[in-house]
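Aim 2 progress update. The chain analyzed this quarter is reproduced below.
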Amino acid sequence: MQEKEKKSKEAAKTKKPYVKPTATKLTHEQAKLKLLGLASTGDQGAKDLLEMMFPETPQKDSKGKKKSA
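Predicted structure tokens:
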């Protein structure tokens, strides 16, 4: 029992203080690059958002691939 109490006290001492979330305003190009990075790793949500926000980007890629196939 004493070991558990010691561990919980140590854990309470090392707990990080709360830091409130911050928002960062991105430019059009920065947002596009972040979404492209996430979409390239397979993030389906990023792909959907990218297609919705920047319809010209994914359509060029998908149409170009379909024509060459």
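The chain has four helices and no strands. The two ends are 67 Å apart (CA to CA). These observations will guide the mutagenesis experiments scheduled for the next reporting period.
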